């Protein structure tokens, strides 16, 4: 059963992880698709704006200027470095007008694209009449020349176009190459907005699945624990009933035997045994029936009495029922002067249940403290023992019906798992509360609190 339960939990967790992986993969694919779609739409918008006559006329300004400088270079009036220097100065001069027209055109598109572009020079090659080629510009050997647009890191840009401008009209042929890069600002924010609906839906679905799995596992654990408790109770009650029934069977056989005829001593002994075992059976049945009551069903007969006298009398009577040589009882009973209003019979039953538990689970030294808790405005009864204690992981279960701790060192202790449950119901019927502070092998402290009237 344990292995089956663990296997089921493991499969459920594995399935959840698989679902998370699949969902993450689908979201990632959607993200990539959205990104590609947005990129294509942005490129189309850039191309539409970039190829207008107004922007084309601005681009021809640096081309015309470069051709004029190239003619001067052919005549020996300019050096190579001046060609590039004049080109840089001319692009800086015309770039503001280009950016203004470009941004205005982009703003007219139906989508509000927050996009930057830059056109950079990638190569300038001159070929003379003899076919000798000379590269006068290479971005690896020179500073980058931005022809148009805004400057941004090359790694943040996406290449969207390579273009070549050639001029064969003069003795020196020109091969002028450039590239256009696109940069989308706030890319993550844009994609988050695009996918916000999907992310919210996925998150809600994920939370629902996790909650459902958690609820199912919790219910499964609860059902498993209840099944174990019921099985344990049946085993315990069977064991408890077996002894008196066996004794009754032997006593009955004794009465019907030949030796019992005419022997009043044997008959009287057998009758006494039957009477004792009948009483024991009746007590077992009464314990089960009474302990099945909730605090709402317990009918109290409350009366006002002196709590310190009550506690001392109860402890005096209790010590008569146990071997005083084996158990040490320390008392700290305060004379509070404030009457305790409770049902003496039920309250005695609750206290004796705790004392019996303390002794049953190894307690040889008991300490009982009675007084007033001014902060809580309540009477308190604190019972401390030096028994085997209760591990913290079990403490929240010990007041449940039929619950018995299933650790190895507790299997030797008989019981039905009803004593502490019944005790809690009695205290709850009085409007009070019961708590425990304990640790394994360090004893336990049970505290009962009953409100002041």
TrEMBL record:
Output the Gene3D superfamilies linked to this UniProt entry. 1.10.287.130, Histidine kinase-like ATPase, C-terminal domain
InterPro entries referenced in this protein's UniProt entry, alphabetically: HATPase_C_sf (IPR036890), HATPase_dom (IPR003594), His_kinase_dom (IPR005467), HisK_dim/P_dom (IPR003661), HisK_dim/P_sf (IPR036097), Sig_transdc_His_kin-like_C (IPR004358)
As recorded in UniProt, its EC number(s) are 2.7.13.3
By its UniProt entry, which SMART domains does this protein fall under? HATPase_c, HisKA
What is catalyzed by this enzyme?
Answer: ATP + protein L-histidine = ADP + protein N-phospho-L-histidine
Q: Does the keyword Iron-sulfur apply?
A: no
EC class of the enzyme, as a word: transferase
Please indicate which superkingdom the organism of origin belongs to: Bacteria
What region holds the Histidine kinase domain?
Answer: 236-453
Q: Looking at the Swiss-Prot or TrEMBL record, what is one Pfam family this protein matches? A: HATPase_c
TM region(s), chain numbering:
7-28, 195-215
* Keyword line: Membrane, Phosphoprotein, Transmembrane, Transmembrane helix
Asked whether the UniProt record includes Membrane among its keywords, one would answer yes
Q: Mind telling me what this protein is named?
A: histidine kinase
Query: Which organism does this record belong to?
Result: Aequorivita vladivostokensis
């Amino acid at each position: 059963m344990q292995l089956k339960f663990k296997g089921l939990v493991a499969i459920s967790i594995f399935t959840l992880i698989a679902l998370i992986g699949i969902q993450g993969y689908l979201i990632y694919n959607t993200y990539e698709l959205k990104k590609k779609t947005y990129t294509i739409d942005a490129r189309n918008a850039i191309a539409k704006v970039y190829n207008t006559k107004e922007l084309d006329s601005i681009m021809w300004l640096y081309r015309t200027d470069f051709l004029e400088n190239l003619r001067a270079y052919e005549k020996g009036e300019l050096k190579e470095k001046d060609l590039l220097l004049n080109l840089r100065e001319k692009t800086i001069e015309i770039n503001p007008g280009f950016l203004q027209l470009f941004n205005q055109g982009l703003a007219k598109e139906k989508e509000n694209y927050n996009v930057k572009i830059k056109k950079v020079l990638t190569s300038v090659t001159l070929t003379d009449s003899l076919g000798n080629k000379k590269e006068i510009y290479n971005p690896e050997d020179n500073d980058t020349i931005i022809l148009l647009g805004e400057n941004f890191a090359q790694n943040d840009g996406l290449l969207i176009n390579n273009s070549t401008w050639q001029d064969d009209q003069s003795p020196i042929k020109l091969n002028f190459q450039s590239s256009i890069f696109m940069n989308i600002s706030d890319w993550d924010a844009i994609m988050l907005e695009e996918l916000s609906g999907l992310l919210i839906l996925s998150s809600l679905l994920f939370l629902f699945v996790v909650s459902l799995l958690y609820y199912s596992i919790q219910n499964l654990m609860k059902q498993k624990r209840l099944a174990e408790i019921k099985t344990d109770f049946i085993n315990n009650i069977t064991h408890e009933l077996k002894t008196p029934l066996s004794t009754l069977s032997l006593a009955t056989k004794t009465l019907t035997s030949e030796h019992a005829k005419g022997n009043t001593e044997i008959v009287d002994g057998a009758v006494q045994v039957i009477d004792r075992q009948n009483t024991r059976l009746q007590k077992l049945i009464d314990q089960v029936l009474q302990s099945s009551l909730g605090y709402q069903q317990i009918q109290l007969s409350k009366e006002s009495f002196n709590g310190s006298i009550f506690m001392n009398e109860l402890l005096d009577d209790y010590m008569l029922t146990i071997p005083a040589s084996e158990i040490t009882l320390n008392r700290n009973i305060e004379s509070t002067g404030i009457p305790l209003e409770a049902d003496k019979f039920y309250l005695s039953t609750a206290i004796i249940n705790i004392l019996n538990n303390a002794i049953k689970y190894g307690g040889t030294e008991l300490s009982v403290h009675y007084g007033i808790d001014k902060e809580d405005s309540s009477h308190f009864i604190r019972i401390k023992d030096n028994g085997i204690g209760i591990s913290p992981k079990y403490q929240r279960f010990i007041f449940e019906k039929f619950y018995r701790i299933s650790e190895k060192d507790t299997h030797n202790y008989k019981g039905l798992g009803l004593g502490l449950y019944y005790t809690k119901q009695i205290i709850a019927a009085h409007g009070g509360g019961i708590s425990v502070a304990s640790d394994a092998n360090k004893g336990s402290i049970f505290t009962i609190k009953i409100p002041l009237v």
